[in-house]
């Protein structure tokens, strides 16, 4: 077969608009996922038995089920169960937030608890409340240790958006699928889709590299 | 007047009893040196004073506040009782100056400029005026420990707790830390020091306490006890540390 570049040229506008949606879902998902992950992770690390149990149940529930099942549940089952109707985009962002949040929670918990106990004691011994010790002393040290595993999670989440094809969100993979169904040019279309994903994950890796270099790991 | 008062204090870790019904009064201006074999409870006794360890029985009153009076009261005790750790525990993301200015800024709530000015004076006092911009990783152990002393002093405590402050240091670095501690004692600071430095106990200490098995077994003047240890286990212990 011959590789037909013109197929890619024609498909590019649709693929780019798909990629834009992928980026949008990922960004919204990661901002939300970081917020949820920090709260759940700190509940696990420093919460009382009750808060700890809630966070533990959430993390186990999400880590124990596939993200496709989670988004299908949000999109198809919630309307039946609770009469909550959501559009595909909202379902997609919610799924990424909830899913990434669970994994980020474990990253946050691990990094905070990996910080030498003596630093916490030194902060407390000055007469600070625990939350100030976490914000000013443990947090900055833990954050540096979080960057490599967070980068991993960001890339996984970006690629997980391709699974939202199942609820018809017009992200990159879905766009490729639709074009392919019309012109049957599998090689050209899936090559183009793969390269667009590589460009996005590559950019993410680069940003994380720079961030890591600017901070000394302590 | 007592600044620290142990009343029948018991501390356990699970099934292990670390402090057994300890009674102890420490007055303002005393320099108390705590010695004893490892596992005798001396570090735990020190850590109970600023409530880093919670006591299980009896009561412990520091500067007229009970360690059992609740979180906000415990924070007041900690502000009055500065602590220096064996492992220094400086904040690694902050320079020496920021470490020392941290307490006044975040605990006492004074401005950054004012806190750093005080911090500079304190660093000069411990002989590190030139090292303010260095990170802990760039300082020697002895320098780190002197920064840690300055950091504790910055909150203006009435009492200083030292938990084996020279045990993690090479012999030639111990002197610089001990000199700073001696100067502090000469200014009249109330100090409680867990240490194996017998020369420090003799020259600087006003009181020597020997602990064994969670109890205070000898309590007296350092010069007398070191010259003529009547307690046989203290005598044996002193032979081992020399």
TrEMBL record, chain A:
Q: Which GO terms describe its molecular function?
A: transmembrane transporter activity
Please indicate if the UniProt record lists Transport as a keyword.
yes
Instruction: Please describe what this protein does.
Output: Part of the binding-protein-dependent transport system for glutamine; probably responsible for the translocation of the substrate across the membrane.
Task: Check the record and name the PROSITE patterns matching this protein.
Answer: ABC_TM1
Descriptive protein name: L-glutamine ABC transporter membrane protein
The ABC transmembrane type-1 domain extends over: 19-208
Among the GO biological process terms of this entry, one is: amino acid transport
Q: Name one GO cellular component term.
A: ATP-binding cassette (ABC) transporter complex
Q: Which Gene3D superfamilies does the entry link to? A: MetI-like (1.10.3720.10)
Which family does the similarity line name? Belongs to the binding-protein-dependent transport system permease family. HisMQ subfamily.
| Transmembrane regions | 20-43, 55-78, 90-112, 124-143, 189-208
Q: Does the keyword Cell membrane apply?
A: yes
Specify the protein's topology with respect to the membrane.
Answer: Multi-pass membrane protein
**The entry's keywords:** Amino-acid transport, Cell membrane, Membrane, Transmembrane, Transmembrane helix, Transport
Q: Can you say where in the cell this protein is located?
A: Cell inner membrane; Cell membrane
InterPro entries assigned: AA_ABC_transptr_permease_3TM, ArtM/GltK/GlnP/TcyL/YhdX-like, MetI-like, MetI-like_sf
Q: Which Pfam families match?
A: BPD_transp_1
Q: Which residues form the signal peptide?
A: none
From TrEMBL, chain B:
CDD domains from the xrefs?
ABC_HisP_GlnQ
Alphabetical list of SUPFAM superfamilies matching this protein: P-loop containing nucleoside triphosphate hydrolases
The cross-references to InterPro entries, in alphabetical order and at most eight, read: AAA+_ATPase (IPR003593), ABC_ATPase_HisP-typ (IPR030679), ABC_transporter-like_ATP-bd (IPR003439), ABC_transporter-like_CS (IPR017871), MetN_ABC_transporter-like (IPR050086), P-loop_NTPase (IPR027417)
Q: Which SMART domains match?
A: AAA
Segments traversing the membrane: none
Query: Which keywords annotate this record?
Result: ATP-binding, Nucleotide-binding, Transport
Asked whether the UniProt record includes Transport among its keywords, one would answer yes
Q: Which molecular-function annotations from GO does this UniProt entry contain?
A: ABC-type amino acid transporter activity; ATP binding; ATP hydrolysis activity
Q: Which Gene3D superfamilies match?
A: P-loop containing nucleotide triphosphate hydrolases (3.40.50.300)
Its recorded name reads Amino acid ABC transporter ATP-binding protein (PAAT family)
The similarity comment for this entry is:
Belongs to the ABC transporter superfamily.
Q: Which domain of life is it from?
A: Bacteria
What range(s) does the ABC transporter domain occupy? Answer: 4-238
Q: Which organism is it from?
A: Shinella granuli
């Amino acid at each position: 077969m011959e590789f037909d570049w013109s197929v890619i040229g024609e498909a590019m506008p649709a693929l780019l608009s798909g990629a834009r949606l992928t980026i949008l879902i990922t960004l919204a998902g990661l901002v939300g996922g970081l917020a949820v992950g920090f709260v759940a992770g700190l509940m696990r690390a420093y919460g009382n038995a009750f808060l700890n149990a809630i966070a533990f149940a959430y993390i186990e529930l999400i880590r124990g089920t596939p993200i496709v099942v989670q988004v299908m549940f949000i999109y198809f089952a919630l309307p039946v169960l609770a009469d909550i109707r959501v559009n595909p985009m909202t379902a997609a962002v919610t799924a990424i937030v909830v899913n990434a949040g669970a994994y980020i929670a474990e990253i946050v918990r691990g990094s905070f608890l990996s910080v030498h106990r003596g630093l916490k004691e030194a902060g407390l011994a000055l007469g600070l409340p625990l939350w100030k010790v976490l914000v000013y002393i443990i947090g900055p040290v833990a954050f540096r240790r979080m960057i490599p595993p967070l980068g991993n999670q960001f890339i996984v989440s970006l690629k997980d958006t391709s699974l939202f094809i199942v609820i018809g969100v017009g992200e990159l993979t879905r766009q490729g699928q639709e074009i392919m169904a019309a012109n049957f040019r599998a090689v050209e279309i899936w090559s183009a889709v793969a390269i667009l994903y590589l460009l996005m994950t590559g950019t993410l890796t680069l940003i994380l590299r720079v961030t890591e270099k600017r901070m000394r790991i302590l | 007047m007592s600044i620290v008062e142990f009343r029948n204090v018991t501390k356990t870790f699970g099934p292990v009893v670390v402090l057994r019904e300890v009674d102890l009064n420490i007055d303002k201006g005393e320099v108390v040196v705590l010695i004893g074999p490892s596992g005798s409870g001396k570090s735990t006794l020190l850590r109970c004073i600023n409530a880093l360890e919670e006591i299980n029985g009896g009561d412990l009153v520091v500067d007229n506040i009970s360690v059992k009076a609740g979180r906000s009261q415990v924070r007041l005790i900690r502000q009055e009782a500065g602590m220096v750790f064996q492992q220094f525990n400086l904040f690694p993301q902050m320079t020496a100056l920021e470490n020392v200015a941290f307490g006044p800024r975040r605990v006492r709530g004074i401005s950054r400029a004012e806190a750093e000015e005080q911090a500079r004076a304190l660093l000069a006092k411990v002989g590190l005026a030139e090292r303010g911009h260095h990170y802990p990783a760039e300082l020697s152990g002895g320098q780190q420990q002197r920064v840690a002393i300055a950091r504790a002093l910055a909150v203006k405590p009435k009492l200083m707790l030292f938990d084996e402050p020279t045990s993690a240091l090479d012999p030639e670095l111990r002197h610089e830390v001990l000199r700073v501690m001696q100067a502090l004692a000469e200014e009249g600071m109330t100090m409680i020091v867990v240490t194996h430095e017998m020369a420090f106990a003799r020259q600087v200490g006003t009181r020597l306490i020997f602990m064994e098995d969670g109890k205070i077994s000898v309590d007296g003047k350092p010069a007398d006890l070191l010259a003529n240890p009547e307690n046989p286990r203290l005598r044996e212990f002193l032979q081992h540390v020399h």
